[in-house]
Amino acid sequence: MLNPSKFQFFTHGEIKPEGWLRRQLRIQADGLSGNLDKVWPDVRDSQWIGGNRDGWERVPYWLDGFIPLAYLLEDEDLIGRAKKYVNGILERQCEDGWLCPCSYDERRNYDLWSGILIAKVLAMYADLSGDERIEEVLYRFFDNMRVFTRHTTIDNWAATRWFETLIPLFWLYERRPEDWMLRLAYRLEQQGYDYDKLFAPYLDQEPRRVWTYSTHVVNLAMAIKQGALVWRMHGGSPDEFAHRMLDNLFKYHGMAVGHFTGDECVMGDSPVQGSELCSVVEAMYSYEQLLSISGDPLWGDYLERLAFNALPATISADMWTHQYDQQTNQVRCARLPEDHVIFGTNGPESHLFGLEPNFGCCTANFNQGWPKFALSAFMRAEDGIVSTALIPASVTTEIGGHRVTCRLETEYPFRDRLTYTVTTDAPVDFALKLRIPAAAAAATVDGQTAAPGSFFELRRTWSGETKVEVQLRFECRLAERPRDMKVLWRGPLLYSVAIKEHWEMLEYTRADVERRFPYCDYEIYPESEWNYGFTDDENFAVTEHAIGEYPFSGTEPPMEISARLAPVDWPEEYGVAAREPRSRKAIGEARPVRMIPYGCARLRMTEMPTVE
């Protein structure tokens, strides 16, 4: 038997995005994610549907975000295109259950990671679409894996991501429990990489320009949830491992934004080292799983830090282009000199915005970020409904035989108020649990004091329509960073110096892949000063603006802060800002400088010293 998760994800269309969140999903659908099957050969002509291009992870990665995007928007065109790919994959399943596009003779050397990934995608597709074929498809696939792993040990990516198998395998077990499924889970655990031992003790404290599976940032982002998934089999603590792992990663490789570096492997705490976009969305998914399994509201805070900051910062506002690596202090996004690439094992184009800068995995994978975040807006508890991610959305479900809708209207994280409307078709008893973000300095629920970093529970008989008002209080605060640097937070948003940007379009063809507007590449150059430090004046002036067409726009951000900063001698070295200034002495008068949310800034200075 499996230990039950504290909260369950809603499925089958219960969650509806609203407000700025729905607009963000529509931007994604109108951008690269919603058109990748039309313009990118690795998806358009993939072996998964009978073509001759990539037959490994790229179609599964794309579907992992495209499917929930289609169903959340209830867009029949997107849904039809998703079904085309799913049907093509199912039609090619072998009689013995094998799903991946390779010949029988190629199986032994085929990295099973893509099979693990497509199984996870198909389970999610079944939840969203109600397709009854998927249960039997996954039953046959895992039965094939049971036989396959008797004589072929999983290796490479499959070995380092083996625990991802548990998500669709447990999904199947909970619908069709058979003992061999748990035995398969134990076998994969035995054959797979043990991240628990990697962090007991943690030896990869110093960054090295060496590529390894064990320091690979995406593997680590996925592995955050390993302990919680294994807990469902063995018991213990569902999140002890995640805390231990993150304590080490944040200590030695932490970024101001609440993530860790990895360009492509962990690279210390410098603000000019990058972190791969895939790692951001995979860490978000790990936090969503941890929140569901453990029920600890802390994981909602970790999730929102990435969703509101790191995710939008590394994708253009219109979501047609993205980076492979994002930097905390990012003053230029232009090709780096071949002999002076700052990134550990990534190439000189890794921080350009484009179709597939450096490598194409993020092109396919980044699109899971927003849709899965939207699906995490509410979760089901044994005794009611939990508001887990504070984003504008509604959930409609049945409790005690009665129809219940809970709607959250909010412009959080750009505003400090949340309004819940609970509607029932008859009196019904249940608990509504509201996550109060730890980033708030204080909070009230209908006038009652609520503790930040906890769930506030309303247990009552709900009848008709009831409104619940949550008021948050945000304060500007300077947080310490290594090398005696600081960063500015206000509530859940990190702020950066707003640098005026000049975008230069690059249209070309390489390796039969065309870059043409709007899915082309860009270099971005600064057209305003960025070499600043904080002063002792911490009187920050906050200005709110309407949320525009693009919620994370750099030209029309929903929020800005005026801070008194002073210029310092801070050079640019080989296309990137130096790790820190030459001197911390002011070289000019302090002046009001516009700072905008990190997620709105594609060029930015975020970590800065206090001037002397």
Task: Give a written overview of the molecule.
The chain has 612 residues and is an alpha+beta fold. 33% of the residues lie in helices and 24% in strands. The strands form 7 sheets. Strands 15, 16, 17, 22, 23, 24, 27, 28 and 29 form a 9-stranded antiparallel sheet that branches. It has a 7-stranded antiparallel sheet with strand order 2-7-8-9-14-11-12. β25 and β26 form a beta hairpin. The longest helix is centred in the N-terminal third of the chain and has 19 residues. The termini are far apart. The model has no long low-confidence stretch (mean pLDDT 97).
Rg, alpha carbons: 24 Å
Average pLDDT level: 97
- Secondary structure tally, helices: 18
Secondary-structure content class: alpha+beta
- Quick one: how many beta strands? 29
Through-space gap between termini:
62 Å
Characteristics of this structure?
single chain; about 600 residues; alpha+beta; nine-stranded antiparallel beta sheet; seven-stranded antiparallel beta sheet; 18 helices; 29 strands; about 35% helix; globular
